[in-house]
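Q: Convert this sequence to structure tokens.
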Amino acid sequence: MDISEVARHTGVPASTLRFYEKKGLISATSRSGERRNFAPDVLDQLGLIALGQAGGLSLDEIGAMLTPAGVPKVNRSVLMAKADEIDATIKRLRAMSEGLRHAAECTAPSHAQCPTFKRLVKVAAAARLKQSRAPSISTGQRKLGQFP
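A:
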């Protein structure tokens, strides 16, 4: 399967396919001139990569779970840790959603008089302080949603 066919079938740009090949996530079966050719199972491998990325795994983590033949060798502890991380994020976002709803619906004359709102402000301030004391995280990682 020609690289352009793979790109057309999957929506993954050829440049990304070349990058994945360079990282060892997929491998071309041959080259026809300047064009790479892939076995049909590359579509399944790209599906696994997409699934891992959707679950928040890095390409290095995904690569560690693929054999050279592209067969998955799942690291259950990595998946469990990622699931725990997602659960913590969901819990944090649910609490934020409930707090925003309360603030929007609160009947207190002023939010400054609402005990629930005051508590939310204190929790947010404490979380911000805790985050600022954490080891430095690059802006790129924050933008990618890898860290709060």
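The CA atoms of residues 52 and 62 lie 6 Å apart.
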